[in-house]
Each structure stands twice: as structure tokens, then as C-alpha cells.
Amino acid sequence: MSQSQVLITSDNKTPLVEIIVWILLTVSILAVVARVATKLTLVGQLRLEDYLITISLLFAAGQSVAAGIQDSNGFGQHIDTLNDGPVSAILKSEYAASTLFIASLCFAKLSVIIFVVSLAKTYKMVTLSLELAIILWAITAEFAILFQCRLPEPWNYIGHACFNRVAFWTYFSVTNILTDCALVSIMFFIAWKIQTSWSKRILIMGVFGSRIFVVAAVGLQIYYSNRALNSGDPTFSLWQASISTQAVQCLSILTACIPYLKPFLESLESGLMRADDLRRRGKVGISGYGSGDRSIPRATNFELSIPSNEANFQSKNSRLRELTNIQRRPEPGYGVTTVTGAEGPSQDWDYQSQRSQAMLIKEIRTWDVDVEGREGNLP
User: Which residue ranges traverse the bilayer (predicted)?
Assistant: First the structure.
């Protein structure tokens, strides 16, 4: 065994904290990389929620680096065994780590909210209110941490006048739990409305509900922080609170990435992410995901162009353009026939066109179809 190897003992938790910090950061990096790779593979582009979770990861990486600096200066050891220099470095690193931790959680939550909005437009006001609450929560927490102690050393809470740090971190953690519970509740409601088999519905609810593990980690953070914040030996007594903080940060990022992983997406018949992205890019006209009451008609417009010399509408000679919105004003020399169907059980409609040509349409979803043919070629 190397003489320079540091062992984990009852009086030295530095190696343990350091190992856990880098392991959890690695898990966060792998989760975000897997999410981004899946999104690029299935959709071909990144959206706002992907950039938000990437920003969250960058803040988490900075927080882990700050925690690593703490460890290198003796965090996890008793304060009476450390000199003033390492103690000051530990306090400064903790100060930086706290601000980065808050920012990382904020962007991870915002990423989840944007994802929820993309699934259920009908809850936009609810999610917007929650989004504003999270932003205000993060901003106020950042200001509180930045000015937690008297200037010019706001990071030095040993022997200096500071606000009640126990009360602040309790408030911050409880609010963190409440916002996560709100996110889980909204996602559960969305999953309940998805029209699919019970097994898949349970899988979806399980994936969305995985964020409850963040709540459990925050509970541990509250317990260990409240027990150690007023300790006279903060460099040692806070090691458990530091580990729980890393767990909260990692789980917040990980649970925001799980719904984007390919095995989960492939379990959904509608392909939640792909359908949403294609819809927003204008390549499909479905007004939402396969959720909600299917008896409600939907209005979706498409354009179907057929060459003018094919009056019999034979598919082998027809030309289908990319689905686009119906043009309200037909081009000169074209006659336009509009056929509208309502979603519901399969029914038959006989529709008489402008040229007295009847077409039989059997459809399940709502479609507005414009059939364009050059005048003089259709009977």
C-alpha cells in the first residue's frame, strides 16, 4: 500500500466525500449526454429544454469543482487539525458551491417544466405560474447566499454576524420539495390522460414519478444540514450534508433526463418527444399527443395536390406534396373542393364536389383536405 494513500477513518471523511462528488458528477454527465444523443438521433435537433439541462450540468460541474477544492483543503476533517489558510479556502469554496448548486437546481427544474408544457398545452397557465415561482425562488435564494454574512467577507460564517443559516436552508429545501411535488403531480395527471395500455401508462407514471427520489434526497439534506450548521466544527460535521447536497443535484439532473432516454420513448406508441417536435416544426398537424378525451373533434388542415390530368385519382399517378396548411385563396385556374371529417368511430360520408363527383371518405381523425385539379380536366 502506498504511504501517500489517504484512508477513510472516523476522523477523516475527505476521501469519501471526494469519491462521491466525482461519481455523482459522472452520472450527471452521462445522463445529459444520453439525453442529448437520443434527441439528436430521433428528432435531429435540440430544443430549449435541452439547452436548459445542459446549462444545469455546467453549473453542477462548477459546483463539484468547488466541492473538490474544499476536499483538497481538508473538508471532512476536524477544524482543530487545520490551519487558517485551508479553513478560509473551505469557506470560500462552500460559498461558491452554494450559489452554483442553486443555479443548477433552477435550470434543471425549468427544463422539466418546458418538457411538461410541450406535452400538455392546456396546462400552460399552471406551468407558467410554477415556472415563475421557481425563478423567483432561485433569485431570492441566490441573493440570500451572496449576502449571508457581513461584508467584506460574506463567505466567513465562523465568528461573524450572519443571518440564520439553518432557517434559510430549511426554507430553501422545503420550497424545493414543494416545487418538485408540483411537477410530479402535473406529470402524473398527464400520464393518466394518455390513451395507452395500463402497463405502458404505469411505466410512464413511474418514469415521471422518479423525481420523487429528489424529494427523498432533499429530506436527508434538511436533516443533516440542520444538525451540523450550528456546529463548532463545520469542516467535519458538514460532510454528510455535503454528500446529500451532491445527491440532490445529481438526481435533479438525472430525473430530468430519464423521460428522454430511448427505451422509454420507444414504449410510447405516439412517441411523445418526436411527435411534439414534428408538430412544432409543422410536419404533422396533430394538435397534441394521444391524450385526453378522443370524442372531442380536432380541426387540422392539410393540402393534398393531385395532377390535373388524373380525374380518377389513381394513387399510382398522383403526387402527394408535404403536408402544409390550406391556402384560403386558391390559385387561378384551380377548383377547390374541401372535405371535412370529424373524429370518432369509423363513418362514411358522401360528399358532392363542385363537379358533381362523389368521394367516399372513411377517417378516424379530423382532416381538412383540399383537392385541387385544373379546370377542364375533371368531369
Answer: 19-38, 50-69, 95-116, 128-148, 168-190, 202-224
